[in-house]
Model the fold of this input.
Amino acid sequence: MLFFEEEKISTADKPKNTQKKADLSVFYKKFSDMEVLIREIQQASDSKSAVALSNRLLSSVNLLYRDMKEVLSRYLFSTYQEPPAVLQRPVKATVDYSDKVLYISFDCLPAKRIKNIYDINHTFSYCFGNALDDANSWYRQINGIIPRYREKVVIWYIVHYKKETNVCDYDNYDFKPITDSISSLFLQDDAPQFVSQFFDACEDTNDYLEIRVLPQTQF
Done:
């Protein structure tokens, strides 16, 4: 008589399976939100409301495309690695807009850049990208839609750090996922003909990241 042992999931695979479930949950929520927007567009009472809702739907599609691309890259080309501690807690963001200047603030510093690990970009993108999406949605409910920039802009990153913080060189912070999120929500594209980026830092009482987006003519 032959006996077959039931296949067991190794301890090393459990974080990966947990992350997959989290990915699917996020995608399910995003698709559900898009379905609600589609129904609202179909029931819109006037063309102005329909256009505003369509712009929201387009932003949602752009974010979904970005997130799905990150997930596919991670599962096709890399193995799971535990993300840094800074990425294991929710990231909070605020958004404000005045005189064609977009003000964004995150309550922590970006993660350090780590070579050849797709998981870091993926998790980073979710933490900061989703925080920015939520902050923008909250602002929109109160103040209306922030218009998409049509001219060339400057993205000005300002790293605020406490005196005791071991602050990194600029090139060791991973700003790319944040730039991608800003681009998908507020810009035409993040190519050089549409965007210039500047980096600054200053000592402060707390660690956080400040971002200003403004027309190049106002920089």
The chain is about 45% helix and 15% strand. Residues 1-7, 79-83, 116-122 have pLDDT under 50 and may be disordered. The CA atoms of residues 169 and 175 lie 12 Å apart. The beta strands are 93-98, 101-106, 153-161, 195-203, 208-215.
